[in-house]
Amino acid sequence: MTRSIILFAHGARDPEWARPFERLRASLVARSPSTPVALAYLEFMQPDLAGAVTAQAAAGATSIDIVPVFMAQGAHLKRDLPKLLEGLGASHPAVTFRLQPPVGEAQAVLDAIASHIEATLA
Q1: Is the C-alpha dihedral spanning 23, 37, 48, 70 positive or negative?
Q2: What is the per-residue pLDDT across 27-52, written as a single tens digit (0 to 9) for each?
Q3: Does 3-121 carry CATH code 3.40.50.1400?
Q4: Domain ranges of the chain
Protein backbone atom coordinates (compact mmCIF):
# COMPACT_ATOMS: atom_id res chain seq x y z
CA MET A 1 0.00 0.00 0.00
CA THR A 2 1.37 3.39 -1.00
CA ARG A 3 0.27 6.22 1.23
CA SER A 4 -0.01 9.87 0.25
CA ILE A 5 -1.30 13.04 1.84
CA ILE A 6 -3.49 15.71 0.32
CA LEU A 7 -3.66 19.03 2.11
CA PHE A 8 -7.14 20.35 1.35
CA ALA A 9 -7.60 24.13 1.56
CA HIS A 10 -10.40 26.50 0.63
CA GLY A 11 -8.69 28.41 -2.16
CA ALA A 12 -8.83 32.08 -3.11
CA ARG A 13 -8.69 34.29 -6.17
CA ASP A 14 -5.37 35.82 -5.07
CA PRO A 15 -2.49 33.41 -5.79
CA GLU A 16 -0.48 34.85 -2.87
CA TRP A 17 -3.07 33.32 -0.52
CA ALA A 18 -1.67 29.85 -1.27
CA ARG A 19 1.92 30.63 -0.19
CA PRO A 20 1.57 29.42 3.45
CA PHE A 21 0.02 26.16 2.23
CA GLU A 22 2.87 25.68 -0.23
CA ARG A 23 5.34 26.20 2.64
CA LEU A 24 3.42 23.69 4.76
CA ARG A 25 3.59 21.16 1.93
CA ALA A 26 7.34 21.76 1.53
CA SER A 27 7.84 21.29 5.27
CA LEU A 28 6.01 17.96 5.23
CA VAL A 29 8.00 16.75 2.22
CA ALA A 30 11.26 17.72 3.96
CA ARG A 31 10.21 15.79 7.07
CA SER A 32 9.10 12.67 5.20
CA PRO A 33 10.50 12.67 1.66
CA SER A 34 9.15 9.20 0.88
CA THR A 35 5.52 10.27 1.41
CA PRO A 36 3.94 12.15 -1.49
CA VAL A 37 2.19 15.34 -0.37
CA ALA A 38 -0.11 17.33 -2.64
CA LEU A 39 -2.23 20.44 -2.28
CA ALA A 40 -5.86 20.61 -3.38
CA TYR A 41 -8.39 23.41 -3.24
CA LEU A 42 -12.13 23.56 -2.85
CA GLU A 43 -12.57 26.50 -5.19
CA PHE A 44 -10.83 29.22 -7.21
CA MET A 45 -7.46 27.41 -7.41
CA GLN A 46 -6.07 24.26 -8.97
CA PRO A 47 -5.76 21.44 -8.54
CA ASP A 48 -9.16 20.69 -7.12
CA LEU A 49 -9.56 17.64 -4.88
CA ALA A 50 -10.54 15.35 -7.77
CA GLY A 51 -7.48 16.40 -9.76
CA ALA A 52 -5.13 15.86 -6.83
CA VAL A 53 -6.63 12.45 -6.06
CA THR A 54 -6.42 11.38 -9.70
CA ALA A 55 -2.75 12.41 -9.83
CA GLN A 56 -1.92 10.61 -6.58
CA ALA A 57 -3.78 7.46 -7.66
CA ALA A 58 -2.02 7.51 -11.04
CA ALA A 59 1.30 7.73 -9.17
CA GLY A 60 0.40 4.56 -7.26
CA ALA A 61 -1.28 5.82 -4.11
CA THR A 62 -3.67 3.27 -2.64
CA SER A 63 -4.23 5.11 0.65
CA ILE A 64 -4.78 8.87 0.77
CA ASP A 65 -5.09 10.95 3.92
CA ILE A 66 -7.14 14.08 3.27
CA VAL A 67 -6.03 16.77 5.74
CA PRO A 68 -8.27 19.84 5.81
CA VAL A 69 -6.13 22.89 6.45
CA PHE A 70 -9.09 24.82 7.78
CA MET A 71 -9.36 26.38 11.25
CA ALA A 72 -12.65 24.65 12.06
CA GLN A 73 -15.51 22.63 10.62
CA GLY A 74 -18.01 24.74 8.76
CA ALA A 75 -20.39 23.95 5.93
CA HIS A 76 -17.58 23.13 3.49
CA LEU A 77 -16.18 20.40 5.73
CA LYS A 78 -19.51 19.17 7.08
CA ARG A 79 -21.46 19.17 3.82
CA ASP A 80 -19.29 19.72 0.74
CA LEU A 81 -16.25 17.56 1.52
CA PRO A 82 -18.21 14.38 2.35
CA LYS A 83 -20.00 14.67 -1.01
CA LEU A 84 -16.69 15.11 -2.79
CA LEU A 85 -15.22 12.09 -1.00
CA GLU A 86 -18.25 9.97 -1.86
CA GLY A 87 -17.75 10.72 -5.55
CA LEU A 88 -14.00 10.13 -5.33
CA GLY A 89 -14.58 6.77 -3.65
CA ALA A 90 -16.77 5.75 -6.57
CA SER A 91 -14.22 7.02 -9.12
CA HIS A 92 -11.25 5.43 -7.35
CA PRO A 93 -12.50 2.20 -5.73
CA ALA A 94 -8.96 0.86 -5.25
CA VAL A 95 -8.02 3.84 -3.07
CA THR A 96 -8.72 4.05 0.65
CA PHE A 97 -9.49 7.57 1.83
CA ARG A 98 -9.01 8.71 5.41
CA LEU A 99 -10.43 12.09 6.32
CA GLN A 100 -8.49 13.75 9.11
CA PRO A 101 -9.84 16.48 11.41
CA PRO A 102 -9.24 20.11 10.46
CA VAL A 103 -5.77 21.17 11.56
CA GLY A 104 -7.10 24.30 13.25
CA GLU A 105 -8.96 22.22 15.82
CA ALA A 106 -5.79 20.47 17.04
CA GLN A 107 -4.68 21.68 20.46
CA ALA A 108 -1.04 21.78 19.33
CA VAL A 109 -1.97 24.16 16.51
CA LEU A 110 -3.98 26.38 18.83
CA ASP A 111 -1.09 26.41 21.32
CA ALA A 112 1.36 27.33 18.54
CA ILE A 113 -0.89 30.21 17.46
CA ALA A 114 -1.23 31.42 21.06
CA SER A 115 2.56 31.27 21.50
CA HIS A 116 3.04 33.20 18.28
CA ILE A 117 0.58 35.88 19.41
CA GLU A 118 2.30 36.16 22.80
CA ALA A 119 5.71 36.50 21.16
CA THR A 120 4.44 39.05 18.66
CA LEU A 121 2.87 41.20 21.37
CA ALA A 122 5.77 40.92 23.82
Answers
A1: negative
A2: 999 999 999 999 999 999 999 999 99
A3: yes
A4: 3-121
